[in-house]
Write a structure and sequence with these properties.
Strand order of the largest sheet of chain A: 3-4-2-5
Largest interface: A-B, 57 and 57 residues
Order of helices and strands of chain A: EHHEHEEHE
Oligomer: homotetramer
Distance between the termini of chain A: 30 Å
Number of helices of chain A: 4
Helix content of chain A: 40-55%
Shape of chain A: globular
């Protein structure tokens, strides 16, 4: 059953949103917002997995390797549960900045807690926890 | 200036959304939807960069390496513009499934077009293009 | 107890070897050859490990990803024993050539047999199996 | 033209060497020693490249990430010449030990000097500089 709700937002934001949904080919705002909500729910579903299910995640971090003890903090978080870190790809962006991409695999609780811990470490300039999959359940 | 719009959605979806915004501590639906819209705009802004700006992206792909010529197609896409692929991390999930995480860096147009091409290749079970950054403009 | 043996070699090769040992600061040919022999023995010792000991190895492969079904053959060898492949780093050297660096970890027998299988696959232009270590026994 | 030289070595070492060349199927000691010498010359040839030729190398390092400032020293060496480090694959071996595999590409002088600097950093338990290739000159 459809319900109708009202939401308020800045006219600027609305104008930009209208351009976006036009570009993406949505027929109306409701459809576009439903898609945004569904994506948010999928992401939340993933991160609420019961603690012992297997989960795979990709974590991307950008940070300054010179920043006082930051690299060491990130290494500590990873080693605390080193079996959940399949491996990490490290790219030197410039003389200071690093992009580190980690593949995590393990119990949901451990993967999510490590991923969120890394992303939220003070000093990390950019951090994302991307839910992934082993592919076993797909198709 | 605030505008008010009406959107319609399934009652089920609405109920789940209400639980989500409650968990996340939003004070009302409008604020939560504004955040979803802002995230979507950031992502679109990134992918609309003028063609020659530098962009960094992380691409995650899950696929079956046995799938007829899929791995070869993915390798072709990467080599067509090999300078934009910094490197790729490959993890064997099980006897069939692979997770491949690529770091792309180059002109916006090339990075986005390669990323979208990889993610949308037929047979890829799971694909995500995650906008990232060199970190230079941050802080 | 010291033994003395005679070996014969091309005068060219001998001249180059003499320059090499001079550069490296060896006091005589015997010492230099003993070192070469020791290295070869260490490598053989490693690869003769009883089948169930844990071993770590780094494998480097350079190949043309267009070469008929070569990439697929290499992927098959890896997936046959996917748990021994921690992960692989893939770098696109140019439009055709790839450098793939794999970290293998598992039972000696499996790690060595997979490593040697990959290195000796027909079409691989450059292949090396580098014995490594977990570091646990060191220091 | 063949020359004949005499070398002296411990009887133990000779006995092990004789077993090794027997296993490997060499017809005599001279042939086996010539192969060891050729390998050493190839390695030296590679590392004596004129300073501006392009070189590719794989560096493998095992170290304890807790060791006082070691990880930071290794990061500094890499960032000093960050363009020569294509990327690094990092594997957590256990709560303390890391295996880091780097792909270096750049001017011979820079690649070799960085590779040797990393391998010889105090505290690195295991370090190897493996000369590799772009594959362009092969076949």
């Amino acid at each position: 059953m459809l319900e109708r709700i009202g939401i308020s937002l800045e006219d600027d934001l609305l104008a930009q949103f209208d351009r976006l949904i036009d570009e993406k080919g949505y027929v109306n705002r409701s459809e576009a917002i439903r898609d945004l909500i569904r994506d948010a729910l999928v992401q939340r579903e993933w991160s609420r997995a019961s603690g012992t299910e297997e989960r795979v995640a990709v974590v991307a971090l950008v940070y300054d390797h010179d920043a006082s003890s930051l690299a060491q903090k990130l290494a500590h978080i990873q080693h605390e549960n080193h079996k959940a870190v399949v491996s990490a790809l490290h790219v030197h962006m410039d003389p200071h900045n690093c992009l580190e991409v980690l593949v995590l695999r393990g119990r949901a609780r451990e993967v999510i807690s490590m991923g969120e811990g890394l992303v939220s470490t003070k000093g990390v300039k950019f951090g994302r926890l991307l839910p992934a999959t082993t592919g076993q359940a797909l198709r």
